[in-house]
Predict the structure.
Amino acid sequence: MEEVEKTRITVDIYGQTYTIVGTDSSAHVRQVATMVDNRMRELRARNPYLDTTKVAVLTAVNSVHDYLKLQTEKELLEQELKKLKG
């Protein structure tokens, strides 16, 4: 079985350094890290009393919520496209 080459990238998220290992490009990993960092900082700015763990969990919850909404929208658009083609 062929092994996919993995990349190792160091990023900073919310004042912490993380090493991310994966098959995505460095640019993609940096973009994801920047987006997570920005969302965490936005949440903290709106809720300064939250500790880091709560900021991280709320960032994850908001991100999954957005993902599920987009997934539902995509499915609805695919269904509409099938109707138009059919």
User: Anything to note?
Assistant: The chain has one domain: 7-85. The two ends are 41 Å apart (CA to CA). The chain has a mean pLDDT of 95.
